[in-house]
């Protein structure tokens, strides 16, 4: 392939990135701006011009899927032979190759696939009682420490400085960390962080190894550079050995993994650390419609902190599309039902189920959507987590609740009975634990309590055929049966379906239609985000979610978690959902209300809060079915035309088309009903009210005109 073919179709900024000279190059690439295209074409261009040899290039990314895609694209561009690997895969390959030399003839130790089991053993030796969940959280803390180049003796101080929330006292975590390292040495095994450290040690402490590796790899490309941690950066520096032929690409606004030790500081400081660096900004968004891009820009425009210094203002390149739909529902259950119905409608209208995603902040939120989609007969797949009823803690809880039927008095209120049953598993309603895995497990069990609250609030009477009604059973036994029914219903096998995923696991993916749900303060941002830095990362999570959508975007939240529950505020990062000014939020009651603010109204069909003016006028969402009286609409049009001609004014001055549609759908028969249509005030009621009521009552335009003439 010739170089002109590699350059063909690139936009000016991509071309600049591809043809930039050797040396430090920093590509700041916004979501959907073609970063993979830019870096693969840069690699291909340099190899095809003879500037570098493919075998001397190492391209590093963070997932095996991304590395495979990069290799495939490079092969298509005529640059086969380039090594494209994850940090771990590249380090593993080098450590295995040099193990006989580094280990004096011994083979490389066995690699631990998971830390949790050995961490559990280490915890027992350190006198720390940790169940499976606690062991996972301890393993996460140890991974964070090792990725951050923190030794066991330094952990307590480093954790406090980093505002970590460890699952146990920091000193105890440090003891487990020490015992874990000792246990690994005794058993002759290493973990993934050890492997990266071994690669660093091999280069830094063995000149012959360093010389061979640096002779092999002379040019480096690092994708998703905002996600690099200190240990990975140490390895990259070892590979470079002071050289500067390095291309990095990243987006500080997509920094969402700081809890793992990842830091955007290396991306932010790249131009300062390398004075000769060429910095290119890719801002042309080829993924999303201008409407989606506009919302993404609005979300991230308010960002603060270090990452905001590299904020990019995206420019949509696709044809215009639908405006993002903003929905507010009375509760989360109603929100889930509406999402499922809309998914069903999208699929019926031709959108493949695999091109639809429902994204939420925590995996514990998935149950409501699994249930609603199952009841709507919409296939779905859960990405990055188990289905709700397949999770070990939920299975254990259901066993505990079945056992509790024998020990908890039958007259105990349902919610209290569920809480007591869960207490037997160690769950405490008012004490969410520290640690990511433990907290996620706590939230999943809290979701069971919320289900019990919903079940208890359901109507007390249920009709049976035509014969009448029976008292609904709200005992623990009946609730257990309901959970079993749900579990069975939601376990139907699926091949392809709507994707259910957390915002973290959605990173790097995209869909035609995206539902961002649960956008309420306390969920997004989570209540656990307390510092300015943590809140900004929550904002970036929302930004990542918005930028996953290609064509169609829905944003929603339930005002209460459960029917009749306490009302919540909308996500503070969505300016479109703001209801009050900062002054009003501060409690200034003397301030006059802003008359320009739209009145809050609800869809008369699905109950969602209506925000757009046209939707408020119609009294329904644009996607909800219309009940237009076509004959009435035609009479209204003829009457409006005659009235406008008589008054010598344009027709819209009398009533707009949208107002006529609203009248033909809502058929107002009283002043109050006519005034309920947005845009109709007392003046128009006085001018045209009697005519409208006559037309709604069945009169013809001629009859109305004659009556007006006689009066």
Automatic annotation (TrEMBL):
Keyword Hydrolase (UniProt): yes
Reaction catalysis annotation: Couples ATP hydrolysis with the unwinding of duplex DNA by translocating in the 3'-5' direction; ATP + H2O = ADP + phosphate + H(+)
Top EC class for this record: isomerase
HRDC domain location: 626-706
MF terms in GO: helicase activity
Family matches, as PROSITE patterns: HRDC, UVRD_HELICASE_ATP_BIND, UVRD_HELICASE_CTER
UniProt-listed CDD domains: DEXQc_UvrD, SF1_C_UvrD
InterPro entries given in the database record: DExx_box_DNA_helicase_dom_sf, DNA_helicase_UvrD-like_C, DNA_helicase_UvrD/REP, HRDC-like_sf, HRDC_dom, HRDC_dom_sf, P-loop_NTPase, UvrD-like_ATP-bd
The enzyme's E.C. designation: 5.6.2.4
Pfam families in the cross-refs: HRDC, UvrD-helicase, UvrD_C
Matching SUPFAM superfamilies: HRDC-like, P-loop containing nucleoside triphosphate hydrolases
SMART domains in the record: HRDC (SM00341)
Keywords tagged on the record: ATP-binding, Helicase, Hydrolase, Isomerase, Nucleotide-binding
Basic and acidic residues bias locations: 581-591
Positions of region (Disordered): 578-598
Sequence ranges assigned to domain UvrD-like helicase C-terminal in this UniProt record: 290-551
Residues holding ATP: 29-36
Residue ranges of domain UvrD-like helicase ATP-binding in the record: 8-289
Family membership: Belongs to the helicase family. UvrD subfamily.
Protein name, UniProt field: DNA 3'-5' helicase
Species name: Paractinoplanes pyxinae
